[in-house]
Amino acid sequence: MLRAIGMRMALVGALCVAIxxxxxxxxxxxxxxxxxxxGGPGGEPSINSPAEQPTEPxxxxxxxxxxxxxxxxxxNGKPYVALRSLARQVxxxxxxxxxxxxxxxxxxxxxxxxxxxxxxLARDGVFLPGDFTxxxxxHEIWVPMAFVRDGLRWSDQPAxxxxxxxxxxxxxxxxxxxxxxxxxxxxxxxxxxxxxxxGLDVPIRAAHLSSRDSHLPGAPRAxxxxxxxxxxxxxxxxxxxxxxxxxxxxxxDGVVVRADRTYREMTKTERDRLLAECRRLGHTPxxxxxxxxxxxxxxxxxxxxLTRYAHLSGVADGIDVGVRVKRGQVLGYVGNSGTSSGVAGxxxxxxxxxxxxxYGEPFWQYLKPEEIRAVLxxxxxxxxx
Length: 385
Description:
Layout: H1 2-22, E1 67-75, E2 78-82, H2 83-89, E3 93-97, E4 102-107, E5 110-115, E6 121-123, E7 126-127, E8 135-137, E9 140-144, H3 145-152, E10 155-159, E11 163-167, H4 190-196, E12 220-221, E13 226-227, E14 231-234, E15 247-249, E16 254-259, H5 268-281, H6 286-292, E17 297-300, E18 305-310, E19 314-315, E20 324-325, E21 330-333, H7 340-344, E22 351-358, E23 361-362, H8 369-380
Antiparallel strand pairs: 1-2, 1-11, 2-9, 3-4, 4-5, 5-6, 6-7, 8-9, 10-11, 12-13, 14-22, 15-21, 16-17, 16-20, 17-18, 18-22, 19-21, 22-23
Helix pairs in contact: 4-8
């Protein structure tokens, strides 16, 4: 008798936990839906939840059960799984910001980040090679099975009723859980950040940092109601001549995590619509900024460093997702894709835009303008190299 009562109490407790974990998103407002939003008509209603602050990975044993069954289906011929359903079953959370075009999930001790409409996925600030393009349909978010296999590192098997059975090892630990040396940019001095970036080299051979502050991070970009996030390398201002055949090289050894080989340039109407949305919002959403970068190659390096090469005219042969590259290896060629000149089909405004991220954060976001220049001079100065 006592044993039966105990079993009923355990079942009630488990049901309560499932109900609580299912409430994984807080709606704080419903901004206007635009056709340019990834969450516009035909997608999830625009819910602009407050962004969760990045935290240090806790590490330890994964708390998820040994197996769960979640809805699965094919999208464009590839297997996808339901992200929200998965998160609910393992006590995780999912936040879709339809205005920014971003998705954040915390599952099994990992923090994952997507930009809607792109193939990239960051796990605890480190970008993974593969195609992880999410698809938002109604309230559900569908992610490729590659997320399960490479992101969570779980195994999968078909199950009945359009579901898939996902299995964890039960004793896996987070990859970054013991990374006690992970930097916290908000607590670092400019000199510390410069030392952290010291292994990077210039992305255009024989070039030097531009003397113009408008070419550096933090400079205003009024045309899109935002700020510049990277370093521009223009001919003349960097000491070299730049054309469409100028090679762009890897700043350090790393792994290619994105290469836009099949990039299609926007039309003027498409670009104008995106810029109008920026003006309406008063800032540049993440998904629009990704479009304005044009053709890109992303390289993930050690120590959480990522370099992003934008506005390219082409990607070099052999530069594909998952390929390991060496410092100085040609990744692509300078262009103006994503810019007004690129859309117009002219050769004006040729330049390379280089972003530097540290575990998913722009290296410069807590620095003053003079500190940003000091850091970049220390890293890219010919005297130092």
